């Protein structure tokens, strides 16, 4: 994957409609007029993804207070997302992108370095989309641990 397929500040965020952990369709356009943080993670109920999701859960009030909603997207099926939500008391939508088309369009699926090997997979990524649907910033290959705290620090400084 080349960096040219990744989103940058000022890009229009690609539209999507995906099924959430409750079986409802959720579209990016549902968030028009709001800021939404879209984060991509590889697999529900794995250590890193659980750490990151729980950090978002625990920080939701601060993020909402800054006018930002959260949406998590993974290639997991809806049933697995529902279990992930219930197991950890997650309080924001988890969307299923089983064919990875949205992840690919957002630059969050492709070649990545996994323990020294180049593999195809989900690239842990976070994109802040502004009220008008444009990308405010995009971060790729983020580390799960401490990622939400870094986002909050950036938001507090903005």
Automatic annotation (TrEMBL):
Gene3D superfamilies xrefs: Glutaredoxin (3.40.30.10)
GO biological process terms, semicolon-separated: cell redox homeostasis; cellular response to oxidative stress
EC number: 1.11.1.24
Keyword Transport annotated: no
InterPro entries: AhpC/TSA, Peroxiredoxin_AhpC-typ, Peroxiredoxin_BCP/PrxQ, Thioredoxin-like_sf, Thioredoxin_domain
Protein keywords: Antioxidant, Disulfide bond, Oxidoreductase, Peroxidase, Redox-active center
Keyword match Nucleotide-binding: no
Residue intervals of the Thioredoxin domain: 7-158
PROSITE patterns assigned to the protein according to its UniProt record, in alphabetical order: THIOREDOXIN_2
GO MF annotation: an example: thioredoxin peroxidase activity
GO cellular component: cytoplasm
Active site: 49 (cysteine sulfenic acid (-soh) intermediate)
Catalyzed reactions: a hydroperoxide + [thioredoxin]-dithiol = an alcohol + [thioredoxin]-disulfide + H2O
Coiled coil: none
UniProt record similarity statement: Belongs to the peroxiredoxin family. BCP/PrxQ subfamily.
Subunit composition and interactions: Monomer.
Role this protein plays: Thiol-specific peroxidase that catalyzes the reduction of hydrogen peroxide and organic hydroperoxides to water and alcohols, respectively. Plays a role in cell protection against oxidative stress by detoxifying peroxides and as sensor of hydrogen peroxide-mediated signaling events.
Listed NCBIfam families: PRK09437.1
Name of this chain's protein: thioredoxin-dependent peroxiredoxin
Species assigned in the record: Corynebacterium yudongzhengii
